[in-house]
Amino acid sequence: MSGSAGQAPPPALEARGLTVLRGGVQVLDLPELVLEAGTVLALIGPNGSGKTTLLKTLAGLQPRASGSIRFHGRPLDTRSGLAAYRKRVTMVFQAPLLFDGTVRMNLEAGLRLHGLPVPEREARVLAMARRFGITHLLDRQARKLSGGEAQRTSLARAFALEPEILFLDEPFSALDPPTREALLDDLALALGQGQARTTAVLATHDQDEALRLADTLAVLHQGRVVQTGRGIDVVNRPADAFVAGFVGMETLLAGRVTASAGGLFRLAVGGREVESVGVPAPGQEVLVGVRPENVTLSLHAAAHSSARNSFPGTVTRIVPRGPCFKVELDCGFAMAAFVTPRSLEELDLVPGRQVVASFKATATHLISAR
Amino acid sequence: MGLIWEGIKQALELLWTLDPEVLGITLFSLKVSILATLASLALGGGAGVALALSSFPGKRLLISLINTGMGLPPVVVGLFVLILLWRGGPLGFLGLLYTPSAIILAQTIIATPIIAGISLAAIQQLPPDLRLQILSLGASRRQMLRLLVREARLPLMAAVMAGFGGVISEVGASIMVGGNIKGSTRVLTTATVMEAGKGNFDTAIALSLILLALMFTVNTVLTHIQQRDRPR
């Protein structure tokens, strides 16, 4: 051991002052990013936010314009250092990128490049084929696989290398929902738990996928990390309007604080008053977010309710959203609520219908105060 | 029609009796064109792969030049090599004019851009991330190149076939720099031209058929290599 007793080991990966240019334009600007060993970090953000670029840069596959990357405390700056690093980490791309040959040949490809002896190679191929449920496909030609089978092969090929860091670039985005579900479960299992947890970075635009697989989230927007934290914290306490929108906090109320006392405050929005949790000063302009799943719709205002906020409004649009429907409302400000198909029918919700939208003060989240 | 039948009959007869002169010309054509194709594969294949994987200002222009070179008229190449190797020319001191080496040189110049152009396209049509995927599986640069070439082996073999087909069938350059000297630089195409010029259509047809049979045989072998381990 090189470190003295009591000193924490350096993180698996540490990037500082990282910038990447494409065609002279800066596409990535990352003051700091830390990946602790034995954790899974999800990079979430919309298309074009720089997730893939960041992943490729961290995986040592793309040159950086400036900045440093340290792997277990050792900087990656020489050509040979980078080549050695690439033997210890690996990446799974959005497309499976299989070689023309059998599934077995594909699973063996990396192991062969690493110069592993044949018996070890065969043992790992079998173990990985079993883990990803592709044992029966081992002698099938890779180009004849379905999308899901191909992506399983690609994941198994990467896991077979037992990488010290695994980089995953939206490996599920091209798959249909049932295939994706099954593969997500298998990947969650393969990533392991506790001591056996694989150190990994996953890029995805799907927050559910990120929450399911990752320990921490980093939200990317236009080449910058706008928020980092535990998954549940990012989703429930988005740092700004962009993150709020991205994690599904669809109702954003911007207004001026009229009163603030005892951890609760009142906010004037579009001629209405909203009660919310937080301690901004009166007179401040603030942004408050509400998730559509926390908004209740009824036909009449309830006489007695613990929901501090109740606003009459008009249904403007109804959009299917997964197993539910998202009902968009105009309450003097835009609101959104999730309802089940049964509620939709019982309340006879159609555009133009008058309803009352309610939510508790504790269901609101103070996003920013200026 | 009678002429063609005569030609076929004579071709079979020449083949059946293993006419030493025809056999000599055939083997010589094969040797010259195979050597030229191999040289072009080394030069053009290497250049095509390198060009596909690099980026520099002027790359587009270079690709345009190579693509133009794919249609280089053999007569023009022949003329260029002739001037180059002419006694008073820049390479005249080598004394290569009217030797098999001169034909190989000219044919290499013809086939190199063909093989380079197709190799370039062959590597470029691979998914752009494949190179990164291979590197990320722990490949060295050399291993990465080998795997890329393996992935592109179908179009790369097509490049070899196109290159070989281009040189075994050309006549302009061979006649200009080889001189169609009997027993020394006579190839199937130049012999065909000569026989046809002399009015010996039957022999000319026989030589053409042998040329076609030769191309078919070589391409069958190459196709077999190309399609090996590819279950339809």
Characteristics of this structure?
heterodimer; A: 370 residues; alpha+beta; Rossmann fold; OB fold (Dihydrolipoamide Acetyltransferase, E2P); 2 domains; 6-stranded mixed sheet; 5-stranded antiparallel sheet; 20 strands; 25% helix; 35% strand; globular; B: 232 residues; mainly alpha; MetI-like fold; 76% helix; 0% strand
Explain what the structure shows.
- The complex is a heterodimer of chains A (370) and B (232).
- In chain A, 25% of the residues lie in helices and 35% in strands.
- Chain A is built from 10 helices and 20 strands.
- Chain A is globular and about 75 Å long.
- Chain A has 2 domains: 13-246, 3-Layer(aba) Sandwich (Rossmann fold), CATH 3.40.50; 251-369, RNA polymerase II/Efflux pump adaptor protein, barrel-sandwich hybrid domain (OB fold (Dihydrolipoamide Acetyltransferase, E2P), Beta Barrel), CATH 2.40.50.
- By secondary structure, chain A is of the alpha+beta class.
- Chain A has a 6-stranded mixed sheet, sandwiched between helices. A 5-stranded antiparallel sheet of chain A has the order 13-12-11-14-20. In chain A, strands 15-19-16-17-18 form a 5-stranded antiparallel sheet.
- Chain A has helices at 51-58, 79-86, 103-113, 118-131, 147-159, 177-191, 207-213, 231-236, 241-246, 341-346, and strands at 13-22, 25-35, 40-44, 66-71, 74-75, 89-92, 165-169, 200-204, 216-221, 224-230, 251-261, 264-269, 272-277, 285-290, 296-298, 309-321, 324-330, 334-339, 354-359, 364-369.
- In chain B, α5 runs antiparallel to α9 (172-178).
- Chain B is 76% helix and 0% strand.
- Chain B has helices at residues 2-16, 20-53, 59-69, 74-85, 100-124, 128-136, 141-151, 153-168, 172-178, 188-197, 201-227.
- Chain B contains 11 helices and no strands.
- Chain B is an all-alpha fold and 232 residues long.
- The A-B interface holds A 56, 59-62, 83, 86-87, 89-91, 93, 95, 97, 99-101, 109-110, 113-114, 141, 157-158, 161, 167 and B 127, 129-130, 132-133, 135-140, 143, 147, 150-151, 229, 231.
